Each structure stands twice: as structure tokens, then as C-alpha cells.
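Final report, closing paragraph on structural work. Over the funding period we assembled a curated collection of sequence-structure pairs, and we close with a single example.
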Amino acid sequence: MPKPRKRKTAKATRRAESVFLNIPYDPPFENLYLAYIAGVSAFGLRPRAALEIPTSHRRLDRILALIQQCEYSIHDLSRVELDRTPPPTPRFNMPFELGLTVALERIAIPGHAWIVCESRRFRLKKSLTDMDGTDPYVHDGTIRGLFRELGNAFVRGRSQPTVDQMMKVYRILRANVRTVLRQAGATHPFHARVFRDLSVLARAAADEVVLS
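Its predicted structure, as stored:
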């Protein structure tokens, strides 16, 4: 006699629907930041990010805990160039968090699916040779390119939005950014409350655009 299936707890359901976003938080990346929120939401998933957790917690502890709360993670390694602020420095946060995720997947959260994104083909082979054998999803630094690659990454997902549908969700977010910033008293979208409000807005837009 087959054993009855165990019902997923609310915590397990939230984890299965959550995606940790390991992406840059700066003005040049704003469009893709919004696109990640829009695209992930269009797949019926919940975007999560380290910036949403209270700053009273140690940042590294926040990141480790958040990764373990998510079934998936997306690591965008497209920003490996030196910044312009003296002294010129490369961005190590994204590859560092990818390394943490790979280690956690091996020893603590088996089954966690991590995804690597890039904007240029073949650069990962040079910038992070330890990832040799891992094929990144190359979005070319464009919004439609990102949506195309999310479709490839989540091809087995329950929801399968088209690129055009994801674009509609993105445009709704873009049209409401100023209102969300004003309501939060913020000057840029890389704040905890703004991220939360954008995620809620994206989920509502996705329900309307994709389900309809």
C-alpha cells in the first residue's frame, strides 16, 4: 500500500516558491534589477534579496539564512569590471555569494538550484575558472535577453510566461517606480521597503497579465 503523501508545510511552500537574487544594487543596473523582480514574479515565484533583511543582523548571516530559505538562486556575474570610484576595485560580492551557495547546496541544502547569469559569452571561463563546466545564461545586458534566459532557466516551472508577458509586468513596474519611491521616502529602489513594494506590485501584475 503506498504511503500517503506528506502535505507541504507553509514554510516548505514558501521555500519552494522563493528565488534568492544575487545581483548588483546600483543605478546602472536598475533596469535589470526591475526586470529580475518582474521576470521571477511572472513565473509565480517570490524574489528575495539580502537588502530586504533588517540591517541589525550581520550581513553574512543574513545572506546565509536567506539562501537556505529559497529553493532557487540567481547569481548575476555580469559586473566584474573595475568601478570608477578610487581606488578602482572589482565587484567580489556576487561571485562570493555564488561560492557560498554552491557550498550550502553540497552540504546543507541538497536540491537547491542555483543559476549563473552573464552579459557576455565566454567571459565566465576567464573571470571564474572554477565554474568551468557550468554554462551561464547569457542575457546580453538587455531586458528582453534576461527574460529569454529566465524562460530557459525555469522551463520546467508550473507557470510559463512569454517574453512579451514578462515585458508587460516590467512596464507596470517601471511606470510605478516613482510612486513607490515617493511613498517610501526613498531616492533609489535599492531599499528594503521599496524592494518589498515592487515585489508585491510585480506579483499582482503577473497574476493579471499571465493568468489572463
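The radius of gyration is 17 Å. Helices lie at 10-16, 30-42, 59-68, 93-107, 123-127, 143-153, 163-184, 192-211. We thank the funder for supporting this effort.
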